[in-house]
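Sample log: Guanine deaminase.
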Amino acid sequence: MPGLIDTHIHASQYVYTGTAMELHLLDWLKNYTYPIEANFEDLKFAEDVYQKAVKRVLKNGTTTACYFATIHVDATLKLCDIVENAGQRAYIGKVNMDAYSPHYYVETTQESKEETEKFVTKILKKNNPLIKPVITPRFAPNCTLELSKYLGHLAKQYDLPIQSHISETTDEVEWVKELFPGSKHYADVYDQCNLLTDKTVMAHGVYLSDEELKLFKSTGTGISHCPNSNLSLRSGMMDARRVLDMGVKLGLGTDVSGGYHPSMLDAIRTAVQVSNVISLDMHTDYKSLSHREAFKLATLGGSEVLGLSDKTGNFEVGKEFDALLVDTTVVEGPVDIFKRDSTDDIIQKFLFLGDDRNIQEVYVAGKQVL
Ligand SMILES: Nc1nc2[nH]cnc2c(=O)[nH]1
């Protein structure tokens, strides 16, 4: 099968995956995320976490990942080296934060600008076709408009992808309203800074209005739907059908560690389950996501969101060979196959029950990496 594409994952948060999920987003950031991410100033700590994160993610069949790191350039460069050695395809972002951040985990506006350009030029110099820097303002509250505008300009100057978060919780949406009274809505804050482009991926988008979705469509901005995270942090339920019906590009993300599972198979399952729950409250002809649609979001959809659909996402002639060799009959594996199972049943069983034990080989751009 085609390799899986994780359009939103925080490599730095892998260290506390599966824990610390009792708080809602803004308290979770304050009490767990910022204190833990601050530790990535220590390169040894960073190297250990990033080695384990990248290994785990590849083992789970993610051939392309769109990573958030932390604000630290050296640690983020370390993540690039590790990804490069592992042979994974990736976008890697040094996070920008110059506002409403704790004193121990914040940059000045000037530092943030300089360090980001330094990071971008260093990665571009590597000339590795599999790895790209991605401009990464954490989310609107954590960046001054001056910084966000500079980042929009930098993305344009170097023709780079952009990633951030939007409308994940109602508290966050209210806070953004208070902080940016001159903006029409949350998406407008980013749009004013030229951060909504056809190379932008915005995580979550649970509470986007129709007007905001139309803006996403007209600018080519994509959404990374992270259902595990939205349930684990009790942020809400994103209606994937509505986004698809409005013609907005959509991919799936694990959002480790708002989401507790590093596997995109989990993202596929949880996307279907969230869509099923939403359908309970809808008119009778509302169609919840099928396993085929969720699979497509985790592969081709992700490649479209990341602007990589000319290279990966499926096995169309002319694309690069990002692939998994899956064995659903592996001994002591998680899937049992019976004579009555059709090919589609077997695929469905793998998507819903399978795990890394079924993933026997992993290829990126034609090279076997696992
Ligand atoms: N899920 C999630 N949402 C965010 N919004 C701002 N930062 C983050 C983060 O690290 N994770």
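Observation: The two ends are 15 Å apart (CA to CA).
Observation: Residues 323-368 form one domain.
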